[in-house]
Amino acid sequence: MSTILWIVFYPIIAFIIGLFMLGYARKFTARVQRRYGPPWHQLIFDIVKLMSKKTNISHGYMHDIAIMMLLGGTLLTLLFIPVPGFHYFAQYGDMLVIMYIILIPSLGMALGVGETANPNGSIGISRALMMLAGYDVAFALSFIGMAMLNHTTSMYQLMLIQQQHGISSWGIVVNPFLGIAALIALQGMMGEKPFEVFIAPHEIATGPMVEMGGKYLGIMMIQHCIGVFLEITIFINLFLGGAKNWIELIVKLFVVFTVLLSVNAVFGRFRTDDAVRFMWKIPVAFAIIGLLIVIL
Amino acid sequence: MYLKTILLLPAITFLISLLFYKTESVKKYLNLIVYGILFYYGIILYKQIGTNFGYNLNFSSLSVNFNVTYLGYFFTLMITGLTFLTVLFYLKFMKDENAPRDFYIWLAIKTFGMLGVVFASDLFTFFLMWEVMSWSTYFVMRKGENTQESSFKYLIYAVSSGMLLLVGLTITYNTFGTFDFAQIHNALSGASVSLLFLLAVIFIGSFAIESAVFPLHSWLPDSYSNTFSPITSYLTGISTRIGVFAIIIFLFNIIGMENINKLVIFKGISLMYILGLISAITIIIPTFTALEQYDAKKLVTWHGIGQGGYMILGLASGTALGIAGGIFHIVNHLTYVSLILFSVAAVEYRTGTTNLNKLGGLIKKMPIEFLGLLIGIIALAGIPPMNGFVSKWMIYKTLILTGHPILAIAAVIGTLGTILSVYKLIHNIFLGQLPPEYNNIKEAPFILQIPIIVLMIVVYVLGVYPGIALSLIAKIQSALNLPAVNYTLHGVSKEVGELNMNVINLVFLGGIIVAYLIYLLGNKRRHVSQYNNYAAGHFLTEKTKYNFNYKFYAALDHVISPWKKRIIERTEKAIISFTENFGEYFRRIYTGNLNTYTMYILTAFVISIIILKELL
Fold first, then answer.
1. Cys-Cys link to A204, which of A120, B66, B91, B459 (CB 3.0-4.6 A)?
2. Residue spans per domain, chain A
């Protein structure tokens, strides 16, 4: 029974936390840049407005299905990530599964954007995929390192192992190199500056979102809230010992997010090839050092 | 006895194709029926696993022996199934007046050769059938324009593969005095490590050519992609994989796991690890070469090489999970790669091109082919819930847990490269702007869609119920004296870390339904044309090219190409200059003087008489 309740309410909780985090992000970035910034609940207004728009323009059935694949795939990924109190699905799929189901939303989005027949969108997708090839190498390496260190690929097991002796058994303390590599990769995964090449509003008119409006953009925003929650939770579960209760999880989420945002607030945008080059050099080097420490 | 029937049926198609040599319209239907019957017998062969028969050759003491093993049955299913689908697709794809008359003849011989290889129970039969198979492949692929040179390249490789095999065969027979697999296996347990190494290098080298393992792969992309598209699918799907079959037979049936463990060069670096490293390179380099192809068929055939690397990587891991993953990947690869190539071929049937820079926006015109290609690329990229993910998951998992980080990261990088290039494939054919010249294109004929729909279902079903294939694979492993994989209907059982594809699939469907409900919350949507698009204030018309597909990953190319220049081109230059010098040395043999040649022939004759006298 409690499992069913969790399945229903977990995505809602994740969405609300994500909403707060994104509201906080806008305020935080504004204050760093000495602006006043929108109120924290601006995103709620945005979503309600977009969902109730009268005209919704679509370019075909794939465009419609894409938006469902985007949200559906994100919900799928979310349910497989263990959080305090809920790890029912974690037994059916390990971290390797998560690494690949997390691509389903992006794939769906890519197909939908392709059908809109707008070159700005296609360029955005091409850049997003190149970024994927950039950050995922470091992220996979650091995950492989953690899995080899603890002899398991299950994210729930990794979480439990890190909770045994408090902070001293956290992944980022046991092997800081892997943790730093994953943190930099996370910056790319979240599309924060300096790696936001695929949104790039001034170059390619927000890339994938260029032909999205009305409820399509609204669903994308809902997905973004859940996406922010789940991407940072993956990092927390792998390197910061997960969380024993929700308050701990929320605190950790905001701490990690603040680190990412402070980088985001002060950096410009890398060119795509520079971003990929950076990703293949610095974080991969960190990850390889970490991996060598694990093996030797 | 089904085995005899199965080996006889290709002979019947051969006769049919000879009788109706000039009447394409009759022979194609007759052939389809016979290949259908062959597929039926391929399925019911399951009842007779373990039967065997031999046939003594009149002119010598040698005999040809066949038996049905689980592995043989597994490959028979794939060979007969894909051949049937290919013939079905070919039926409509080729117009009668353009069809090469001798295609069915060579297809019959090739099918016979492949079936003979998988049923062979001794080395002599194996070699005989191997030669039949590789020679007929040359004639099968030598169809269509510009195939002379590329298929001749294949022939050179195939002949050297056959020669290596002959050398291995001779050494084995001279040492142990027998051709039988089981007897060689028993004799090998007492053999020295150096002999084992010699045999391993010779045999695996020979099979690596056929299965296009990295340094020996260069014959494949051109020769496969220049032929007619259905044949490309057939060759990529099954023909290359017979090489992997041979590697399985050689590693686990002839040498045996207990002897493989002896093959260690020095601490930690074993034969299997070297094989793993080679297959890791086979994954990465062809996959990133595929990224820059602009011909759909060539792109997929390059991936065919890369995916072959995963199979051998799985086998080289040596664990129950890894070997099962490697074998499972063969059937997965067959299903999704032929699905992809059939879809591409159906597009080619209507548009007449496979050039990725000229196509675009066909999704509205050919939705079935789009769906086929979509499911195919999801499987090829190894994303759940399709079948390619399951086998790749098994390989990643075993590599991580047995402590092979380098091989595991190679597998992961290969998958990243695959995702990039398959998105380019589907985007440039089906997405983006539809060029005006394709405005009146229709769906492909229904006969071309049948193989696509069938394979779509197979790819999805094997993804959600991998247990269907894994049950057979577990039996193969027990028959080869290997530890069998712990499987369930939906994946892998708890002892090895559970994977349940059904749960993933259901949760995904549930997520889609929730997303659909949220989607319904908004107001009704309106479909608009591709010219009703954001163009920064410009008006788009039919004449405006507003598309992005040329050099899809230009930025990545900026990153990779300097590396390629540094490493690959220099290596290539070195190899070329070496070959030129070497060739110059050999050129002196060809003096152009008839007397010299006569002397050569005489010398060769005398030498071979001496050798034969020693042997017999």
1. A120
2. 2-295
